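Q: I have two molecules that I believe assemble together. Could you output structure tokens for the complex as a whole instead of separate predictions?
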Amino acid sequence: MNQKSDPIGIFDSGVGGLSVLREIYKQLPYENTVYFADHMHFPYSEKPAELIKEYVLDIINFLINNKTKIIIIACNVATSIALKNTRNIYKIPIIGVIEPGAKSAVKVTKNKSIGVLGGKKVEEVYRKVHKSLDSDIKTFGYPCPDFAKFVEQGLSDPKEIQETAYSYLKNIKEKDIDTLIFGCTHYPFLKDFVKEVVGPNIKLVDPSQETVESAREILKKHGLLNEKIQKEAAHIFFISGNKPDFKFVAEKLLNEKVDKVVQNIQL
Amino acid sequence: MNQKSDPIGIFDSGVGGLSVLREIYKQLPYENTVYFADHMHFPYSEKPAELIKEYVLDIINFLINNKTKIIIIACNVATSIALKNTRNIYKIPIIGVIEPGAKSAVKVTKNKSIGVLGGKKVEEVYRKVHKSLDSDIKTFGYPCPDFAKFVEQGLSDPKEIQETAYSYLKNIKEKDIDTLIFGCTHYPFLKDFVKEVVGPNIKLVDPSQETVESAREILKKHGLLNEKIQKEAAHIFFISGNKPDFKFVAEKLLNEKVDKVVQNIQL
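A: Yes, here they are, computed for all two components at once.
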């Protein structure tokens, strides 16, 4: 049985899930965390669904073996493909980012027209969840294939990112959306670049905020919320494969020191 | 959600679990089955507990991915180390062989002295379960380190087996046990050799019978018992690593044709 001091488990195909981890640091500063980056299989968006389901099961087993008390699938693709399946299989609470993201966006939109930055599959799942929350909502997708790569590279070439953001989003005002969801956990790290193109009138929604609120509620309900001040919460990072610049990139994205990184985890 | 026609999943480090599969064929002839032999890690008895826990999680994921409706850990070592853990993790019903074996033995014994053929760890778990069922029961262990290997080799050298059985069990009457449990799923295939040494007055208990009865009850309770006569129940066998003689050995042990064998499964 889990204890309050057990860590929150969180994973992504890469460093994108750090946008959710950053939100945990902010909302739940006393929680210990275990982060898993499935670098060996990055990016998930180009993998068959059956493979992604297997990766996710392997990672969840790994996190459970590391005594996690709740698991956050901090990846939109993995959430869209594997969340339901994992909830059928495991007893541990598992949450994804899409329902929280959709809820946030539906609260924010005034004109019921919501854009999703992300691929086709993710766009479709958001459309479905939006409809279930409010049948009048219209959902429009905006694929941004190279965005995740820029974040993995630690935002090393701002000029290229800004030009790419412009090319992806220059026609965004054609649909009159007033809300835009980051449909990939990498994208909140590109917020300034996106803002620069879409202007001040489109509200940007980062699902991580509502995701972590949802995690907090579930932990509270199970009596597992860690509200006790520790000397320092422990944060550990596991990487499948090898990403030599993980520490450098993660510290840049999180704006926090990253000490415990274990590379080459075999699942 | 599972359906009646979904298979029963069953696994062991090798061919020992076939003694449980044989009992499924007998008691539940309409059930489809998926058998997993973790040949790559045979024998479990020599592996650290933490590794066995990981193997078991990987196999259970594999079986769940193959749509199994219930899982039988058809291995005493894996049951003793991992059953409780897996039940904490997964929603699917999971049963082991030790509780059923202990229940059978406690029903059978008249003088409350029960022997267990098996290693120290397995003996201890049986002792604990016996005590919980009847605090007067005395439990005695008889390690038989080479028995499983003989079964893996398809009982190819009866003379050697008989001599080894004699050397392991020649002092068995010193303790006045009246009941002897096969504390490893390989051992029921050596029944005749054991009988030859221990004589007619010690009752031999094969846990597989009560294990399959227990599986039947659980399936019935969940509305998942397959009682409909199919053309032919499907039985498939997966092997980690490579055991070229699996089909030959399995057919000899089961006394049934074994058609679908898939080798070299990577978990």
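A: One point stands out. The mean pLDDT of chain B is 95.
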